[in-house]
Amino acid sequence: MPGPEPTILTATDAYFVIVKPTGWTVQRDAQAPSVLEWLNDQGHTAFPVHRLDKPTSGLLLVARTTEANRALSLGFAEGRVEKTYLAISDRRPRKKQGWVRGDMAPSRRSQWKLLREQNNPAITRFRSVSLDDGERGFVLYPKTGKTHQLRVALKSLGSPMLGDTLYGGTPADRLYLHAWRLAFDFEGERLSYQADPIDDKFTRWLSHSSPDKD
């Protein structure tokens, strides 16, 4: 079992907010441990509301009832959930901030590619800041939830994520992508959560400046 186990940041009668480590999947996978199975083994009923890729760490929302799952999943489907990610690259982007928009299509070797068409586009707003050692930190605000959306967005900017060898990134000890903040409506209340990453490169960034500031 790779690295640390997940942690439960918040538990209510309706949902869990989980901090998922890198190397864990959300649902069953013969090649890696699963967050849902981990919860089931502890006697919890759990339904996936959204997902994070196996190499991505950070906040994961899991419903505890079918009713909560329907309500929370609808929030994601309707774009009412605010998601903020942190990423690191060792390559300068073509622009420091802005938007990446475009349809996505399957490509070779399990990759996805960004298209010029805008029929059902993946949409990401981003900002970037200079870090130590020639690296660049990215704050990513996905407005849609397409497969590999953020990884493809940074590749399109000429700044594939550190550790993202699938998309041409420099090899590293992990994929440097972390689901940092999550905000959503539930039962008439706006709720928000944050989980800071624990890896050295991320913690050095957070210790010197807030990602909220340029």
TrEMBL record:
<dbReference type="GO" id="GO:0000455">
    <property type="term" value="P:enzyme-directed rRNA pseudouridine synthesis"/>
</dbReference>
<dbReference type="InterPro" id="IPR020103">
    <property type="entry name" value="PsdUridine_synth_cat_dom_sf"/>
</dbReference>
<dbReference type="GO" id="GO:0140098">
    <property type="term" value="F:catalytic activity, acting on RNA"/>
</dbReference>
<comment type="similarity">
    <text>Belongs to the pseudouridine synthase RluA family.</text>
</comment>
<dbReference type="GO" id="GO:0009982">
    <property type="term" value="F:pseudouridine synthase activity"/>
</dbReference>
<protein>
    <submittedName>
        <fullName>Probable pseudouridine synthase</fullName>
    </submittedName>
</protein>
<dbReference type="InterPro" id="IPR006508">
    <property type="entry name" value="PsdUridine_synth_RluA-like"/>
</dbReference>
<dbReference type="GO" id="GO:0003723">
    <property type="term" value="F:RNA binding"/>
</dbReference>
<dbReference type="InterPro" id="IPR006224">
    <property type="entry name" value="PsdUridine_synth_RluA-like_CS"/>
</dbReference>
<dbReference type="InterPro" id="IPR050188">
    <property type="entry name" value="RluA_PseudoU_synthase"/>
</dbReference>
<dbReference type="Pfam" id="PF00849">
    <property type="entry name" value="PseudoU_synth_2"/>
</dbReference>
<feature type="domain" description="Pseudouridine synthase RsuA/RluA-like">
    <location>
        <begin position="15"/>
        <end position="155"/>
    </location>
</feature>
<dbReference type="InterPro" id="IPR006145">
    <property type="entry name" value="PsdUridine_synth_RsuA/RluA"/>
</dbReference>
